[in-house]
């Protein structure tokens, strides 16, 4: 096979190409432009009926992932994983890249190495699980579970024709291996299958059947773009080998793929055609979506300079891609019952770029992002109600970055000094929701059914709600005001009446938490202190004191009348309130 017959190996990162975003054109632009004339929502009526059960609340947000596998087991990484372990009764699924990549284990942004596979002097394979053990130990010990991304090609399995990938060596690119040769198909599929089986056996021996039975086993990452430098058919065959190898060791393992980008519909269709024809094991189907790919990707200008064009994420773009790929799965009746795993589901890409690369990444520091995330999770749940294929996980591809400045603006839960960004509070708020979804709506909510009528535009301003009920009678509701345009500010708060019915208790304690510019927001405190990059101990203490999910007002008693009560909210743009009605004994 000639290089021309294989997928082009010379796809490179440029100012117009972002990792994680496919190259096909879609109905949506690469990012949402700012519109200063867009109308505001200044009043809303929200209704909640705690007596109307809409089924189990799928906790689709309980999943994270990241490139930097070697930061999993640092002290900071372990601490952050522990925070997620505390936010779920079952634990989050954690999906790190690069477990099979060869290297020393030195961590840098957008790279990592598990360094598992090796050949001895006689060409015989052997395995070193030293780094992989540290990674998986940290995840399991924090109460979470592994989504095992089986990737990428170890250096000793890179085919000879990978030499065609020409690179200029640099301080962090030691050879063409680091530059992307790891994306070529393994030269020996049998050796790859043995590696997969050995990896699965080692995990079974180390963590036990009960733990490993909770894991997901996924082949590769985004093979429809430069992460795979072979043909689609070569990938499909590799899946057959991989799934068989996992099941050889773990007969009940959940295996799947192919983790395509949001524009990978044709690749996904070919993959499912192959697995269907071959009767390969397939327990989930995975794909990705990104809400924006700012252009230019990186601005080479003065430090802290403005963006050349004001751009924002688009929730519509993400929902459209999720629906499109879900409907590809729907084309195969035998796969209607399989869960869709959106194991990169992010407002922007790439994770390691920041406000210093393009000022549009500022939203990743502010209250905009947690409110966006709450909105997105609810809209995906609404999409589940309209579609045959159900999204089971919507993964935030976020962790933390060593060596960054305070509020660098990367897509991360922590910034320098271990300070929590407001984004983490979205997950604290979502964690407070109960087991059952209940009826709730707003007269100014933007429905997912409008996807076909939005003509590629981003989601307009809205007030919407997601509500739940727990077995003990506690009712929790998230009520937000948001617009995709991060630059569309409003000095006027929206008057929101929350009307709740179906309360069967005699009395409740109402707790009110808030994420906005002045609550649950360490970034605002840091900025108010002059944005110090060397904060004093007192300044750092003041910043960290405001990083968690904060009460907006003191808890107070509520006595329903005929099972009904009302709450008046005043919501700035953007903001989200968490209202919790706890039955009094």
Compile the SSE list and pairings.
Elements: E1 32-33, E2 43-56, E3 63-66, H1 75-85, E4 93-96, E5 117-119, E6 125-127, H2 130-141, E7 145-150, H3 176-179, H4 189-207, H5 209-212, E8 216-219, H6 232-249, E9 254-260, H7 265-278, E10 284-290, E11 311-312, H8 315-330, E12 340-346, H9 368-386, E13 391-394, E14 396-397, H10 423-431, E15 436-442, E16 462-469, E17 475-482, E18 494-501, E19 508-515, H11 522-528, H12 537-544, E20 550-558, E21 565-571, E22 575-583
Helix pairs in contact: 4-6, 6-7, 7-8, 8-9, 9-10, 11-12
Protein name: Beta-xylosidase
GO molecular function: xylan 1,4-beta-xylosidase activity
Pfam family, one: Glyco_hydro_39
Describe this structure as you would to a colleague:
Helix 1 links the parallel strand 3 (63-66) and strand 4. A nine-stranded mixed beta sheet has the order 20-19-22-17-16-15-2-18-21, with helices on one face. It folds into two domains: 38-50 and 435-583, Sandwich (Immunoglobulin-like); 58-296 and 312-432, TIM Barrel, CATH 3.20.20. The protein is globular. The protein contains twelve helices and 22 strands. The protein has 585 residues and is an alpha/beta fold.
